[in-house]
Specification:
heterotrimer; A mainly alpha (about 260); B mainly alpha (about 325); C alpha+beta (about 110); A: about 260 residues; mainly alpha; Ferritin; about 65% helix; B: about 325 residues; two-stranded antiparallel sheet; 13 helices
Amino acid sequence: MTPEYRTALIELLYQLADDNFILAYRGSEWLGLTPHIEEDVAFSSINQNAMGHAAIYYQMLEDLGEGKSDDLALLRPPAAFRNAVLLELKNGPGNYWDAPDYDWAFAVVRHFFFDVFKSIRLNALKKSSYPPLAAAAGKIVTEQAYHLMHWETWFVQLMMSTDEARRRMEKALSLCWADAGGLLSLGKWGAVMAEHGLTATEAEWRDQWRQAIGQSFARVGYVPIGEPGMAHGDGRNGEHTADLGEALSILSEVYRSDPQATGW
Amino acid sequence: MAAAVPFEQWTAEEKYGHFMRRIENGEKIEADDWMPDDYRKALIRLITMHGISEIMGAFPEKEWVPKAPTLRRKLAIMAKVQDEMGHGQLLLRVAEDLVKPCGKTREDILQDLFAKRLKFHNVFHMPSPTWADAAVIAWLVDGAAILSQTMMLKTSYGPYGRALKRICQEESFHAKHGESLTLSLAEGTPAQRRMLQEAIDRWWEPLLMFFGPKTKEATGHTNVDKNLKYKLRTKTNEELRQEFLSKYVPKIRLLGLAIPDPTLRYDDEKGEWIYREPDWNKFKQIVTGNGPKTDERLRLRRTSYENGRWVREALAQWKAAAV
Amino acid sequence: MTDSVHRFYEEYEVFSRKKGDLPLEHRFSLLAPNMEMAMILAKENFFRREPVADLWIVKRSDIRKMTQSEREAFGRLEKPYRETRGYGDLNERWRAFKARAGESGDAGP
């Protein structure tokens, strides 16, 4: 493994781990607060899957000598995180224990965008030049069929129902579209990753994602304005919002509370 | 009974006699079977309270879901709280089928909850200020719940028994999860052990209260007798509390933790635990909707339910359009 | 309360097959606004741990169940002629044939 390959690999693994970790956290904040009890249960499975995927990627980083996986998830400063900014944004005003004014339309569109992208990325990673990653992607992708079916159902039904739902969904769509470009970015190491066969190129999965999302948009008669953007910056290069810092302080509150502790 | 007379033409006494014979023969009653009003009322009361307790019980632990210390703990507590919501789903479905003949739906049950017309278990009105509370809830509150749910597995009401069977299977994972969290803190630093001890101190009285008062005199009424008559349950509150003490007091002491009741001891002659009675007036206050966290948690549930109204209205429309 | 709230809460019965060679079994019921939604909800509400090879969703109002009157009224007399236990004499009759064959030394291997 050349130093350049190794750096690109580690950057990529942080993108994979942090995407899943942060969105699983945002999803877990919804537990007990969704519009329907049956949905609380279903949504939680998707979040557990994503948190489990994050743990697999952090373990791969640990195996590469980056440090303990719990430390990687919980003790890095926000600027070291490589997740797309779209995934770190708050679910809405308030917080999960006090007056959460969460937006279900935003949750549906964000998760739908992410899971479509995640499936494309995993299928590309099955051919990764790093064998442990290719093997992990082959396993993880099996959980995607359910995620896609779940979010596609929610997306289509809410888009095709009442005027109010359509208005809320279109608002969420423009919010997510403005930062969807950050999902598709591979960051400044992207060219090296593709060159070494670690992933597909950024252009390839951007096309695939646009095509898949375009098909769903066509089903519901929606036309987006312009290209997916990076309104809040490129998380792959360590650019983040204050929402990430706040999330990380909640996520690591207990873990940091007793520096002497060796087990939890 | 003349076979030629269809069931719906039997007299009320004949139906009641037939119903009681079925109960005594250990047969299971189903949702659309004839049942006496007080049997239906007892079921609605018991199962609605159980279901709502699961839903409201998700909140004190849910506070710790995003904060759980490690990746493994985050995954496990997500799964655990998800199961609690799932148990709420199963039990509410059973309750909803029982209130349906009265023209009521889940909407009415939730509105009753928001208006404090429904009770839920005392323990879920209590604060859970530290990670150790999540451990004690999973170990001891779930431990207490397993005892009372297992006791009702043979209930005469078929749908409730089937829901409980599923619930008890999942609770065995919860018990292990709770034990694991507790052991990690007990094995840990002085600060971790102190946090655990403080959580035990906070939860001891609510845990004793969980099983309900010993006698009718303590609260003025109890539904236990009726539940026994209709074979909805097989043990009294005090029998369950004694089982709980036998199962957990030795374990708590083995961990070197103190139980905040200097009078607690096992009386060999009587063959039972002697303990300090919890404050039953406080219990009554709590379960009638005046616990320390009652309003905050009800507000959380009501706000989220109201926020989701546009979603439920939209999907009801979607179906209408699709048909 | 609006009518649409009731329409959101439709009852669906959930049936599943654990493995290919097992019969379909009733699992439980859930509330959902339509069939597609009922399907995605059923999957994780009832099969978070156990395997599921197939899943059926049926709207409860489409099911014709027996009434209690029918359940109480339908009796049945014993019908030994359509069950194996109605044929308990066969062994004895075979034995008689074997005994006869033994006498004539023509029993075969």
